[in-house]
Design goal:
There is one protein chain. The protein is an alpha/beta fold. The chain has two domains: 7-49; 60-226, Lipoprotein like domain (Double Stranded RNA Binding Domain, 2-Layer Sandwich), CATH 3.30.160. It contains six helices and six strands, in the order H-H-E-E-H-E-E-E-E-H-H-H. A hairpin with a 5-residue loop joins strand 4 and strand 5. Helix 3 crosses helix 6. The longest helix is centred in the C-terminal third of the chain and has 30 residues, at 197-226.
Length: 228
């Protein structure tokens, strides 16, 4: 009987063998550490340049010719009366601390005008004791803001939902008396031990509110000055 060969089968086996070798090489390839490091560094650099991020609020996103700024009274869209007035003091302090722009009392004397609204503020429980009573609250505050060129009235920066959150203990046992935030207060551990839970909650909520507004002002300035 004449033997019949199958060319298609032979070609298929050769193709399978070649494919197997290629995938085996790919699977066994491990980039050298130096190459990986360069690739990671390049990816970080590209991402950073794409979002306009800088490692410090140097003011590189502000118009170079701008020297003065006027801060309009922020609006208040929350149910907390006076929160916008309190927040403005933190914003002005943050601008003054960076010394990039000089605060002025009139938009006519300003190169830039900062305006905005406090759009959200609330305190919600995030931790509970065995009796389902709140022991820690989180206080969150958010703002919308925009920066306008006072000369041509063109908006050069705007951002929505800039926010800051800060935890607030409601009972003495939940207060971390060694934390940097607590050490900034006038209270000490012996003071907390002598307070009722209501007194602890009131004092810590007030401190949390101040810290949240200060951090929000820092976040706002950083975003405004860097242009993102």
């Amino acid at each position: 009987m004449r033997k019949v060969t199958l060319p298609s089968r032979i070609r298929l086996n050769r193709f399978d063998t070649m494919t197997h070798r290629i995938f085996a090489k790919l699977a066994g390839y491990v980039p050298r550490p130096a190459i990986v490091s360069r690739l990671v560094f390049a990816a970080i650099a590209i991402a950073a340049s794409g979002c306009g991020y800088h490692f410090a609020a140097e003011g590189s996103g502000l118009p170079p010719q701008a020297k003065t700024i006027y801060v309009e009274k922020f609006g208040n869209r929350t149910r907390h009366t006076g929160i916008n007035d309190e927040f403005m003091r933190y914003v002005e302090d943050e601008i003054a601390n960076h010394k990039r722009l000089e605060l002025v009392d009139s938009p006519a004397a300003a190169d830039l005008v900062l305006s905005g609204n406090i759009v959200y503020m609330d305190t919600l429980p995030v931790a509970f004791n065995s009796a389902s009573e709140p022991t820690i609250y989180t206080q969150t505050i958010s703002a919308d803001a925009s920066l306008t060129d006072a000369h041509d009235h063109k908006v050069i920066w705007t951002s929505r939902g800039i926010s800051s959150s800060q935890q607030s203990p409601a009972v003495g046992e939940a207060v971390t008396t060694t934390s940097p935030i607590f050490l900034q207060q006038n209270l000490r551990s012996r003071d907390i031990a002598s307070m009722t839970d209501i007194q602890v909650a009131q004092t810590q909520q007030a401190s949390s509110k101040q810290q949240a507004m200060q951090t929000l002002a820092q976040n706002l300035y950083s975003s405004m000055s860097e242009g993102f």
